[in-house]
Amino acid sequence: MDISKFAKKPTLTKIVIDDAEVIETYGESIEFHMLDQMSISTYFEFYRLQHEQDSDKLNELLRKIILKEDGTPVLSDDEIFPVDITLALLVKMNDFLGKSKTKALTQTTGEASK
Predict the structure, then answer these.
(1) 30 close to 17: Cβ distance less than 8 angstroms
(2) Does the N terminus or the C terminus of the chain have fewer Cβ atoms within 10 A?
(3) What is the pTM of this model?
């Protein structure tokens, strides 16, 4: 299979935070947008910063990743989200990034795993 078939331009995707705690606290679900694909360096940085618990750099990265419907950043340089929303964002982003993986090829058959 030609690898060029996997190349694509990232598109904005709406993500909804709709867990009970957020709805109870804020009265409704919260929506944000992010690109459905990101560079491998951003992907690794996102997971590394979570592991290292580097909150300042993680906030900087969230400014790049969390977008409005028009693709512009939600946060300005001097803004941050409340901790509960930040944690909910991280959970949703982890879920989304985990689901965006393509099916891996099996080593024995070279066919997509089911």
Answers:
(1) yes
(2) C
(3) 0.76
